[in-house]
Amino acid sequence: MTIACAAGVDVGRDFLDVAIAPLGSAFRQANAPAGIAALVRRLQRAGVQRVVLESIGSYGARLVRALADAGFQVGVVDPKRIRALRLAEGRRAKTDRLDAELIARFALLMSDAARAIPGAEALAIRALSTRRRQLVEMIAMEKTRLKQLAGLDEEIAESCRRTIAKLSAERGQLEARLRERLLAQADGQARGELLQSIPGIGPAVAMTLMADMPELGSLDRKAAASLAGLAPHPNHSGTRLDPGHIQGGRPCVRTALYMAALAAARADAGFRREYQALRASGKPAKVALIAIARKLVVTANSVLKRRQPWTPAP
After folding, report:
1. The domain containing residue 141 runs over which residues?
2. Could you tell me if 302 and 259 lie in one domain?
3. Domain end: 185, 218, 235, which one?
4. Which of 138, 209, 227, 256 is 20 to 30 Å apart from 152, CA to CA?
5. Considering its fold, how many domains does the chain have in total?
6. 14 with 102, same domain?
7. CATH number, domain with residue 90
8. Does 192 reside within a domain?
9. Would you say residue 1 lies in a domain?
10. 314 residues of the chain, pLDDT tens digit each
11. Is residue 196 assigned to a domain?
């Protein structure tokens, strides 16, 4: 959709540098509630319709929510796309203000710059899911340290065991809160049961899909695979025919589905035949597992769309 006025924001920990295109104006506000409120009012007075910022971490989360609540079209864009525009324009100078102006031009030029922003509850659920993954990673690191210390330093090993116990207890409490909020959603119980009808997808993977890929059930098969980071992207030019590689998407979803594929590929009632057929055709084990993971997300999308549990192929 063509728009007449757009803004770009370069987000920092303490300040927000803002530029408006095509007006050419720029200003700075503190990255704090009062500064964000003033920024929103100023953009409204300027007639801005779309606001874009780079996806670079949590410093812009409060701004994104305020902009969405105020009715702006909001885009949180991969920094690689912004850098590509700088390269295309032949620019080298880089300051916070210049970055904001570059992002504003991007917002004005790219029709797909703005995307729907999840609601407050969806963001809270996603934050719980992220924290759960962090705890799982910390537990894994402590277990690795414990294994390395076996028989060497019992005092430090005992510290690792205590840490693992505390982290595991915190993970259990957090998972209970996450499960409660997911099931409290409209049709949350039904979505969880439908997902777990698919071989390889257990409670943990189902929670990840519901929390980090809530769009499942409303996509086509190609979009579902791409959003999960499991769609191969070709790289052909002239006589060069390089094999496609997966990239992009949501890494947490891709990891969860890969682990689910490991289980599904072993299950007689699951996707064992498909996995064995891929291996028999010469596909490496990892490539075959990625193919099964892609089949899982496409199946999950279909199951939720049809609202019918998975049934094995005859």
Report:
1. 120-185
2. yes
3. 185
4. 138
5. 3
6. yes
7. 3.30.420.40
8. no
9. no
10. 567 899 999 999 999 999 999 988 999 999 999 999 999 999 999 999 999 998 777 888 899 989 999 999 999 988 889 999 999 999 888 899 999 999 999 999 888 888 777 788 888 898 899 999 999 999 999 999 999 987 788 889 999 999 999 999 999 999 999 999 999 988 899 999 999 999 999 999 999 999 999 889 988 888 899 888 888 877 766 766 666 677 778 889 999 999 999 999 998 878 899 999 999 999 999 999 999 999 999 999 999 999 999 987 76
11. no
Together in a domain, 59 and 19: yes
Tokens representing residue 71 in the block:
């009715």
Are residues 87 and 18 both part of a single domain? yes
For residue 163, the domain's CATH number is: 1.10.287
Torsion of CA 8, 10, 15, 20, to 10 degrees: -20
CA distance 165 to 159: 10
Which of 109, 143, 176 finishes a domain?
A: 109
Query: CB under 8 Å, gap of 24 or more: what pairs does 38-41 form?
Result: 39/63, 40/66, 40/67, 40/70
Q: Are 9 and 16 in contact (CB under 8 A)?
A: yes
3-state secondary structure the chain: CCCCCEEEEEECCCEEEEEEECCCEEEEEECCHHHHHHHHHHHHHCCCCEEEEECCCHHHHHHHHHHHHCCCEEEEECHHHHHHHHHHHCCCCCCHHHHHHHHHHHHHHCCCCCCCCCCHHHHHHHHHHHHHHHHHHHHHHHHHHHHHHCCCCHHHHHHHHHHHHHHHHHHHHHHHHHHHHHHHCCCHHHHHHHHHCCCCCCHHHHHHHHHHCCCCCCCCHHHHHHHCCCCEEEEEECCEEEEEEECCCCHHHHHHHHHHHHHHCCCCCCCHHHHHHHHHCCCCHHHHHHHHHHHHHHHHHHHHHHCCCCCCCC
